[in-house]
Amino acid sequence: MYGWTGKKALVDLSNNKVIIGEIDEELLKKYLGGRGLNARLLYDMTDKDTDPLGPDNPLIFSTGPLTGSLVPTNGRYSVTAKSPLTGIFGDGNSAGFWAPELKYAGFDLIVITGIAEKPVYIWINDGKVEIRDASRHWGKDVWETTLELQKDHGKRAQIAAIGQAGENLVGYAAIINNMKRAVGRCGMGAVMGSKKLKAVAVLGNQPVKIAYPDEHLKIVDEMLAHIYKAPGYPARSKFGTTVITDIYIRNGTLPIMNVQKSYDEQATSLTSDKFVPYTTGLKGCFACPIHCSRFTKGDGEGTYGDARSEGPEFETIIAIGPRCGNYNLPSVLKLNQILNQYGLDSISAGGVISFIMECFQKGLIKSEHVDGLDLSWGNHETIVELVKKIALAEGCGRWLAQGVRKISQEIPGSEDFAMHVKGLEPAEQEPRGMKAWGLGWAVSNRGADHLRAFPLAETTWTKEDAIRAFGSEQVVNRFAYEGKEKLVKWSEEVSAFTDSIEMCKMAQMALTMPLEMTARALWTVTGWEIDGQELLKIGERVVNLERMYNVRLGLGKKDDRLPKRYEQPITEGASQGQTFDITQLIDKYYSERNWNIETGHPTPKKLEELGLGFAVRDLP
Ligand code: SF4
């Protein structure tokens, strides 16, 4: 096989056993790798009774076909399991340097089951897989663990670790590699913690074989030229994702105070330029010329002067900033650091904290429910304290570790502003002012999330492009409903194949890499004859399979909706007066997908067409 090592490791922690096997190339051709491959394995390995924190829930790490090649932005990987936060399909995706190192160590895929008797880590080095004692790392944060393991295995070793949040089974614990890059969503860190698995450390020197090396070099040059010419490149490479804050302030689409507001002049204290004085260097992931990441450092003054980390990204800035009414930039730097060290998903953490701040504002909870803390909006000292308590499972932290949906069930009167979809806290968009994003959140199979559909075209494409692709210029009118079902379906499919080949969406979607270029890159690496339409078809297969995972658990149309708050008009800013009404889009979306519009389920015909006939038996 070209591009792949062809090897998988099955690690059974209950029995302290490792089995190394071959991967079936036909399976890879059908799902591409990464997210798609993992979805199929999870489908086969779990059922509706699988306990997300039990031994039978597999934790599946996998790379993609391009991983370790020269194709730009190929350094991502996916981790998949049944989510302990939502109870449904769960996965997370991270960039950095871990994924190519796994391939160089000789593996494409690691499937971990069981629960170890005592804390362990997995050491993967040049074709060997060992389960090793991690007792001395247990209780330590991600940074301490990473540095200790690199001391033992060398600085080149790449470490994906959990912090205390994962050990304490926080519903939204993350797995962190390169000290900062997060497999953030759906609580994959808690699944890792439930297995008493502290880290997966990888190092290797094995080559990735390229099917057509000369053609590979040519297509890489073409892809690089495309990236450097893309209109979005200069800002993304200089400021990273922080520029999105600027756009959302301008558009009045910033979630503020648990989405009670969508615009506030104070948010200008967190625009991209404000982070420049704290930026000490740019950083790119493996084979990435975009280098959207930055290192930041506090100014040495005051409580947060010693802050230092990579980032913060836009989502983190808003989640623990304006979403919590917090406009204090040094505190945002510090919070970014400790979220990475404890190993927490910043989006869900900000979602939970802002939700209880609103409960406090409305008198539904009192200080004594949160260990006497003052939950006033913008109280950054409280936010820092709550992040610690959640990660360390101290006091109210254990309660808050459950996520917004479960906390809300214990607070009568909070349902309408409990911001989650299918149990997952939403990212930092405002669906009332960006209708495609609202639909994308509602139908996402892992709950509210920006990266599932990622319908950037709504605000970045021209009218001409919109007409050519979707038949309506209204697709680029962010307030219009027209054509959004088509845009979301297409974007979901591009997202799904991009996550499966494990390229970065920043290149594929934000900088609009042509599908045929990506397909040709895949051909040069693997030798597979494939075109852009086939990539979209595989994306469709992955979306349908993930949907069927949830259908088997009883989900359907009733779950494809947004919190009630979005039915109320926005009261200020450039999106004033906008609401979000899912009924304007949902049936059209199901029709576009050829799904049953009464249930929101794929039809048997659609499943057969996509080669998913085995899932027909799971339709009700
Ligand atoms: S664009 Fe950013 S997140 Fe994506 S691979 Fe490059 S540096 Fe990493």
Structural features:
26 helices; 3 domains; Aldehyde Ferredoxin Oxidoreductase Protein, subunit A, domain 2; binds iron/sulfur cluster; Aldehyde Ferredoxin Oxidoreductase Protein, subunit A, domain 3; 6-stranded mixed β-sheet; Aldehyde Ferredoxin Oxidoreductase,  A, domain 1; alpha+beta
Annotate the secondary structure layout.
Blueprint: E1 7-12, E2 17-22, H1 25-31, H2 34-45, E3 59-62, E4 77-82, E5 89-94, H3 98-104, E6 109-113, E7 120-125, E8 128-133, H4 142-153, E9 158-161, H5 164-167, E10 175-177, E11 181-183, H6 188-194, E12 197-203, H7 213-229, H8 233-239, H9 243-251, H10 272-275, E13 279-283, E14 293-297, E15 308-310, H11 314-319, H12 329-342, H13 346-361, H14 380-392, H15 397-400, H16 404-409, H17 435-443, H18 450-453, H19 457-460, H20 463-470, H21 484-501, H22 505-510, H23 515-526, H24 532-551, H25 586-592, H26 604-609
Parallel strand pairs: 1-6, 7-12
Antiparallel strand pairs: 1-2, 3-4, 3-6, 4-5, 7-8, 9-10, 9-12, 10-11, 13-14, 14-15
Helix pairs in contact: 1-2, 2-21, 2-24, 7-23, 12-14, 17-21, 21-24, 21-25
The structure holds iron/sulfur cluster.
Describe this structure in words.
The strands form three sheets. The chain has a six-stranded mixed β-sheet with strand order 2-1-6-3-4-5. It has a six-stranded mixed β-sheet with strand order 8-7-12-9-10-11. It has a three-stranded antiparallel β-sheet with strand order 13-14-15. It is of the alpha+beta class. The protein folds into three domains: 7-203, Aldehyde ferredoxin oxidoreductase, N-terminal domain (Aldehyde Ferredoxin Oxidoreductase,  A, domain 1, 4-Layer Sandwich); 242-417, Aldehyde Ferredoxin Oxidoreductase Protein, subunit A, domain 2 (Orthogonal Bundle), CATH 1.10.569.10; 431-618, Aldehyde Ferredoxin Oxidoreductase Protein, subunit A, domain 3 (Orthogonal Bundle), CATH 1.10.599.10. A hairpin with a 4-residue loop joins strand 1 (7-12) and strand 2. Helix 1 (25-31) packs across helix 2 and helix 2 (34-45) packs parallel to helix 24. The two termini are 39 Å apart. It is built from 26 helices and 15 strands. 39% of the residues lie in helices and 12% in strands. Bound molecules: iron/sulfur cluster (SF4).
